[in-house]
Design a protein that fits this description.
peroxidase activity, Alpha/beta hydrolase, single chain, 16% strand, Rossmann fold, alpha/beta, 308 residues, 8 strands, AB_hydrolase_1, peroxidase, Epox_hydrolase-like
Length: 308
Amino acid sequence: MPEPVEVQLADDVRLHVTVTGPADAEVSVVLVHGWTLDGRSWHRQLAALRETFESVRVVTYDARGHGRSSCMELPTATLAQLGDDLAAVLDAVVPSGRVVLGGHSMGGMTVMEYAHRHPDHFTRRVAGLVFVATTAEGHTHTVYGLSPRIARLIRLAETTGAGVLARCGAWRPPRALLRALRPSIRWMLFGERCDPVDIRLVTSAVARATLRSIGGFRASFGAQHRLETLAALAPLPAAALVGDRDRLTPPPCAESIAAALPDTELTVCPGAGHMLMMERPDEVNAALYGVLRQVLDATPAPTAGRGC
């Protein structure tokens, strides 16, 4: 069964972490969720990993201001801070062994920021990467599936609204409002198909995110550019996945990541949107399995102790 753990950070923010698998695992998988979501967004991958790789430690956590983690001061609502938080989570709950990092959307950007800000730590710990519906180029390619002119107007309205929400502190969105916005959430995040269970889970996650985190992190997303960071990494087994109907991080985002990391296996999922872990769980699971098996094959087996 998953074990809940609380990690207290240097600024007293408390992160809700869920851990399964042996504490002394040679390899661990850490999955980082997207903006306004929480660790539950990986539930199909968690179930598959636990069933298939019993010797692997699997970790998810709710980012600051999201899910069951505590709120934070507005100046720390940045991708840079999320990169630092990821390093702290690894030290706290995966102190040894090699790590495969999976990041969805903001979670993928968090992984890149961790690599940028903690290069030595990253090199010592990380053995594989899986990027799901994310970008290393801010909003360079984000046009919401619309014309560039309309996209600029939407982005202006979005960033203005985000600034207002960021000043609303630890309040959370009213559930009644989110239910009314479900058609818009479904249009923005999903492709051709959407299981009602998934849209309910996403709406539930957004209801748990603080308005400070919904608004506060938005400025970081457009400003982050980390292709050079990725290109400077040592060769690692990696995968990048994207839906061809993704309105937030369209295929050019994944293509540029794959170009920066030459060993990356690129998967474009026809008809899928931004929530690939839910829309295309088999493809995401296969990518995780592929990277994980490469890491496990390259990890020396423990040496048995000699008797007297």
